[in-house]
Amino acid sequence: MSPPLHIPASKLCESCRATRALISRPKTNQKLCKTCFLSTFEAEVHATIVSTTLFTRGSRVAIGASGGKDSTVLASVLKTLNERYDYGVEFVLLSIDEGIKGYRDDSLETVKRNAVQYGMELVIVSYEELYGWSMDSVVESIGKKGNCTYCGVFRRQALDRGAERLGINHVVTGHNADDIAETVLMNLLRGDLPRLHRCTSIITSSTSSPIARSKPLKYAYEKEIVLYALHKKLDYFSTECIYSPEAFRGSARTLIKALEKVRPSAILDIVRSGEAFSRMIPSQAQASSAKLSQESGMSNCTRCGYLTSQELCKACTLLDCLNKNRPKMAVEVEAGIEDEEASSSLRRGMEAMKLAEEGIVN
Amino acid sequence: MNEQQGPSANGVRSNPISLNIEFSGGLEILFSNQRDHRIQLPAKDSSGEPANIMFLVHYLCENLMKDRRKDLFLLHGGIRPGILVLINDADWELEGEEEYLVQDGDIILFVSTLHGG
Ligand SMILES: [Zn+2]
Ligand SMILES: [Zn+2]
């Protein structure tokens, strides 16, 4: 095909040479038109899925759907690929309602629309029904600091329990290359080898869960995910969680974005480095040492039945803390003690419990 | 400021440039929660150079942005890394980034990649 006269050759798509290039790929610097970009993006996700034999024909797989860009793009791409390459997989949208007014309400509406748009079943599991606590009530009780710990532990179990309810043993999430690069950096800076190992694998089956997790977008740049959503006019929701994000992750994120600006391949390079380091980690160090001694001792939580190495699972331990704190808080509030102080003393108590011992990989 | 203006520029006042500015991906929060804005940008910056993207973003920061957290849009004198800029649907990297000279009727989209997954 000869290029149209009105577009200078330097502005043409480097793949089809027929239309104007609109996208500059951070991975390769290749300049592509909209059609070539969308199909290249899809082909790369397909390649990741095929090379890791991620799906089995006839299986049901849950997509952890938040209504945000990553999980929306994941659902859209998986629908496209499932039809195009006949994976024979049944995808179901699984959403968690954390109970955060003005944030979750709106994003759940987005997920409901997505379910219709993609013709997928939608299941919503709420913290309220699972734990008796919404995130709004947790924050009311402990304050804004440290609430992400609760949310992380609760979310992990909630996705598992939602999947279990559906008789599904595989949950895919929208984690992208930027997320993984960020987590690799954080784990390097903390010297956390077990988590470094886990965050780089495409599929993780943890000892504390019978449900496998996987990340089909692990090599997809956040930039390309946003561009995919824009050029495909996908319906997604974009407001940050109103409760503060972890400061450490925020700094890692800023660093990653600054590196990408100077050297776009940096993100994929960090992911690859993480994978290479991960292969060098001796197998004993891949699980945390605390867990190792009890590896054989995995049992069911005495309260809720969730698999755990302790007597109580992490969610039940946190709930104990919250429930004990409830009447005490009421007294303190009456006595006029400021919220912030009460929450910081609780936080210190929580830190002493060494919550971080077990992986809270989000 | 510049007394040595050439005869062509002398006395000629260029009309402002009409632009369609869009914010997405959470950035709209910084701009009165409004996605689409139509603005009239001065055709030249204070030193008489034709308006480019760099001039535009500083103009937006000073005149359109009500939010005080300026560093969520501009950082170290440039667009905050992690914000994508699309000029008439094209990645600004294909158009010369900050140096691109804005044209009447351009649609310029700023989209944050940083918010929620
Ligand atoms: Zn093309
Ligand atoms: Zn339990």
Automatic annotation (TrEMBL), chain A:
UniProt record, GO biological process: protein urmylation; tRNA wobble position uridine thiolation
Cross-referenced Pfam families: ATP_bind_3, zn-ribbon_14
EC number: 2.7.7.-
CDD domains: CTU1-like
Compartments in which it is found: Cytoplasm
Recorded superkingdom: Eukaryota
Enzyme class: transferase
Principal location listed in the UniProt entry: cytoplasm
Domain Cytoplasmic tRNA 2-thiolation protein 1 C-terminal, residue spans: 300-330
Amino acids binding ATP: G64, A65, S66, D70, I96, G174, D179
Keywords: ATP-binding, Cytoplasm, Nucleotide-binding, RNA-binding, Transferase, tRNA processing, tRNA-binding
Pathway: tRNA modification; 5-methoxycarbonylmethyl-2-thiouridine-tRNA biosynthesis
One GO cellular component term: mitochondrion
Domain tRNA(Ile)-lysidine/2-thiocytidine synthase N-terminal: 61-240
A GO MF term: tRNA binding
Function text: Plays a central role in 2-thiolation of mcm(5)S(2)U at tRNA wobble positions of tRNA(Lys), tRNA(Glu) and tRNA(Gln). Directly binds tRNAs and probably acts by catalyzing adenylation of tRNAs, an intermediate required for 2-thiolation. It is unclear whether it acts as a sulfurtransferase that transfers sulfur from thiocarboxylated URM1 onto the uridine of tRNAs at wobble position. Prior mcm(5) tRNA modification by the elongator complex is required for 2-thiolation. May also be involved in protein urmylation.
Stated family: Belongs to the TtcA family. CTU1/NCS6/ATPBD3 subfamily.
Protein name: Cytoplasmic tRNA 2-thiolation protein 1
Encoding gene (name): NCS6
Automatic annotation (TrEMBL), chain B:
Sequence position, cross-link Glycyl lysine isopeptide (Gly-Lys) (interchain with K-? in acceptor proteins): G117
InterPro entries assigned: Beta-grasp_dom_sf, Mopterin_synth/thiamin_S_b, Urm1
Post-translational modification: C-terminal thiocarboxylation occurs in 2 steps, it is first acyl-adenylated (-COAMP) via the hesA/moeB/thiF part of UBA4, then thiocarboxylated (-COSH) via the rhodanese domain of UBA4.
Positions of modified residues (1-thioglycine): G117
GO cellular component term of the entry, any: cytosol
One Gene Ontology biological process: tRNA wobble uridine modification
Subcellular location: Cytoplasm
Keyword tRNA processing appears in the UniProt entry: yes
Pathway the protein contributes to: tRNA modification; 5-methoxycarbonylmethyl-2-thiouridine-tRNA biosynthesis
Stored Pfam families: Urm1
Major location category of this protein: cytoplasm
Chain coiled-coil ranges: none
Domain of life: Eukaryota
Keywords: Cytoplasm, Isopeptide bond, tRNA processing, Ubl conjugation pathway
Recorded family membership: Belongs to the URM1 family.
Function: Acts as a sulfur carrier required for 2-thiolation of mcm(5)S(2)U at tRNA wobble positions of cytosolic tRNA(Lys), tRNA(Glu) and tRNA(Gln). Serves as sulfur donor in tRNA 2-thiolation reaction by being thiocarboxylated (-COSH) at its C-terminus by the MOCS3 homolog UBA4. The sulfur is then transferred to tRNA to form 2-thiolation of mcm(5)S(2)U. Prior mcm(5) tRNA modification by the elongator complex is required for 2-thiolation. Also acts as a ubiquitin-like protein (UBL) that is covalently conjugated via an isopeptide bond to lysine residues of target proteins such as AHP1.
PANTHER family, per the entry: RURM1 PROTEIN
UniProt-recorded name of the protein: Ubiquitin-related modifier 1
Organism of provenance: Choiromyces venosus 120613-1
Gene name, Swiss-Prot/TrEMBL: URM1
